[in-house]
Specification:
The protein has about 200 residues and is α+β, with helices and mostly antiparallel strands. It has two domains: about 55 residues; about 120 residues, Band 7 domain (Tetrahydropterin Synthase, Chain A), CATH 3.30.479.30. It contains five helices and four strands, in the order αααβββααβ. Strands 1, 2, 3 and 4 form a four-stranded antiparallel sheet that branches. β2 and β3 form a beta hairpin.
Length: about 200
């Protein structure tokens, strides 16, 4: 008799288990599984789209395309600097039309500011007329970057010739990245016309 009760209990347990499994597939927990799967798929697609927009070209023209008609691009700024003897000219030209940039230094105890006026030395391979037009077009962006960069420096960061040379180097790298993002750097160096701390 005990064996029959055990057998009946096992059969009832098996029946309940099979009902529970079939209920999971069609009941509320089955719907929950589908909803979670849909949310994960949608979130993954959104993240992939966002990452693609962030890391992608974001509207830049592809190879062989002009971004907006006949604008100056790094490829068409380059001129042939070979002289009549067949050797490359090593000259450069200067752009000195920057207005002074004034920024508060990152000093918590006192108000100190720096006033900087720059001269850019450009590679001779860049056509002066087209290069000047490119710089003029991006001057506001360059000035904005320089203001933010200088505002992040402390008095100790700008003290001494080693720090000034480091600042010049970082400005050259940033200007090359902004002016010639997918080409060989054409800004040779940046000279300080004025660098006053008050």
């Amino acid at each position: 008799m005990a064996d029959e009760d055990d057998v009946k209990k096992q059969e009832q347990q098996a029946e309940e288990d099979s009902k529970a499994e079939s209920g999971n597939q069609e009941g509320p927990s089955g719907r929950l599984l589908w909803i979670i799967t849909a949310i994960v798929v949608i979130a993954g697609a959104g993240a992939g789209f966002g990452l693609g927009r962030l890391l992608g070209s974001s509207g830049k023209a592809g190879p062989g395309q002009s971004p907006e008609g006949n604008q100056a691009t790094p490829e068409n700024l380059i001129v042939d600097t070979t002289d009549t003897t067949g050797s490359k000219s090593q000259g450069s030209w200067y752009y000195d039309q920057f207005e002074p940039v004034v920024a508060n230094l990152d000093e918590p105890t006192v108000t100190r500011y720096v006033r900087v006026t720059l001269i850019m030395e450009m590679d001779a391979q860049v056509d002066k007329k087209k290069g000047t037009a490119l710089i003029e077009k991006n001057k506001h962006s360059l000035t904005n970057w320089l203001t933010i960069y200088l505002a992040g420096l402390s008095l100790e960061d700008i003290r001494g010739d080693r720090n000034l040379k480091l600042i010049q180097s970082e400005i050259v790298d940033a200007f090359n990245e902004k002016l010639f993002p997918d080409a060989k750097p054409q800004v040779k160096r940046v000279l300080f016309k004025e660098f006053a701390v008050q």
